[in-house]
Amino acid sequence: MVDAVRLTERARRSAVELQTVAEVSLQATQNLAVADLLRAVVELTKQRFDLYHAHIYLLNEEEQRLQLAAGSGEAGEFMLAQHHSIRLKQNSLVARAAREKRGVIVNDVLQEASFLPNPLLPETRAEMAIPLLVGEDAIGVLDVQSTQVDRFSETDVQVLTTLAAQVAVALQNARLYEEQVAVAEQLREVDRLKSEFLASMSHELRTPLNSIIGYAEVILDGLDGPINDEMQEDISAIHGSGRLLLSLINDILDLAKIEAQQLDLDIEPLEVKPFLADVTETSRILIKDKPVELVLDLPADLPQAQADRIRLQQVMNNLISNAAKFTEEGSITICARQNNGVLEFSVQDTGIGIDEEKIAVVFERFRQVDQSSTRRAGGTGLGLAITRQLVELHGGQIWVESERGKGSRFFFTLPLANGTSE
Ligand code: ADP
Q1: What are the two backbone dihedrals, phi and then psi, of residue 267, each rounded to the nearest 5 degrees?
Q2: What pTM, to 2 d.p., does this model score?
Q3: Distance (Å, rounded) from C-alpha 288 to C-alpha 277?
Q4: Which of 164, 209, 376, 409 is the most buried (most CB within 10 A)?
Q5: Cβ distance 129 to 96 under 8 Å?
Q6: What is the largest CA-CA distance in the chain?
Q7: Per-residue confidence at 421, pLDDT binned at 50, 70, 90?
């Protein structure tokens, strides 16, 4: 009879203990901040297992020390504030559990020669230390203490070993998460510094460059007196290179701003027809010496686009100047039409075209498909990267259809202005 009662009592106790393990594990896995996680585990373990004290040490591998990371009650707080730690080699129950990677029990601390009484925990009579194992490694120790002699059994070791395994996994996850958050934060900071640097460098470079361009114009306009043909040619070269460099610096600054999400669009309803007519006229200069026809092909009716005029001009200029750069004869056709609830624009040329396998990379930064033809035509490989970003900032898409030797057609879409329907 007595045995039956004892058995029932044991069964009840282990059911409660398993439930507690599940509860503590759940708490642990729900917590992604390491310190909070460990504090929750020690408090719950102490409470639910009816213990005198519980604390967790974490291994500092470099220093070969077990560093107190959480402790229950006031004693725990105090020891934590004191940065309490134990050397891995020390003759202590906690260090032994970490070294031997298994749970260890001292059921009567007063009989244990190596037991060092802690003045903050004067009533400890029994102690059990369980390693926190991840794979083969002990990353810390869960140490529990009771005021009762003979409090801990092998069953307790098993129960708390299960608990410690869950805590170790949760701890590992929380550490990885904290690391990830820290790395993401660092990356954001590096990115911010990069953009800041680029923005200020671009400004520093642009100021003297603008004065080079400006003074070259003054001389070319004859404001400083007459110049001969040779001087005219040389200063035109200075002027041309200056403008090229300025546009490169502007591109770099734009890209830096877009990537730092600092580029704000000034989006308004835009009348597409007159806008494209303007763009076409100002682009004529790009093909002035070539047998290339510039055609604007628009339907009678076109709804307004929702766009930033200046940035859309930049998009069109990039596409048309590429078409002009890579087309020796034939035509460049600019189209726009309404299609599936958006406005679809395209710039089509009869130039050198792009190989099928290169099409995927033309919108990437610094990509130039054919080094030799680009070197002849000039460029940095930034134009299409910026163009894509600008289109996407408007909520549109960009793509290209092209065939080597036949020509290319770049398409992009823009939203219709509010209130304009199909
Ligand atoms: P780049 O300043 O070199 O023109 P882009 O980003 O504007 O840089 O273009 C990237 C590359 O895509 C170009 O170097 C060129 O190889 C290819 N490309 C762009 N537009 C055309 C086009 N209309 N026809 C043929 N190739 C083109």
Answers
A1: -90, 130
A2: 0.57
A3: 17
A4: 164
A5: yes
A6: 124
A7: very low
Ligand 1 contact, 141 CB (< 6 A): no
Cβ–ligand 1 contact at 369 (below 6 Å)? yes
Q: Is the dihedral of CA 57, 62, 64, 65 positive or negative?
A: negative
Taking only the tens place, the pLDDT of each residue in 368-385 is 655 554 444 456 678 999
Pocket of ligand 1 contains residue 332 by CB under 6 Å: no
Beta strands 126-134 and 268-270, pairing class: unpaired
Q: Kindly state the DSSP code that residue 416 receives in the 8-state scheme.
A: B
Q: What's residue 367's pLDDT?
A: 61
CA distances to 1, 29, 31, 164, 232 from 177, in Å: 53, 12, 11, 20, 64
Q: Which helix (H) or strand (E) segment is 208 a member of?
A: helix 154-220
* Contact of 382 with 251, CB cutoff 8 Å: yes
Q: What is the CA radius of gyration of the chain?
A: 37
User: For the chain, what's the residue count?
Assistant: 422
Q: Distance of alpha carbon 252 from its chain centroid, rounded?
A: 21
Nearest 5°: CA angle at 377, between 372 and 236?
135
Distance 381 CA to ligand 1 centre (A): 7
Residue linked to tokens 């309404």: 338
Distance, in Å, from the CA atom of 225 to the CA atom of 241, rounded to the nearest integer, reads: 23
Placement of tokens 């802690």 in the chain: 118
Residues 6+ apart with CB under 8 A from 228: none
Ligand 1 centroid to Cα of residue 337, in Å, is 24
Cβ-proximal residues to 236 (8 Å cutoff; 6+ apart), any chain: 216, 220
CA of 360 to the centre of ligand 1 (A): 12
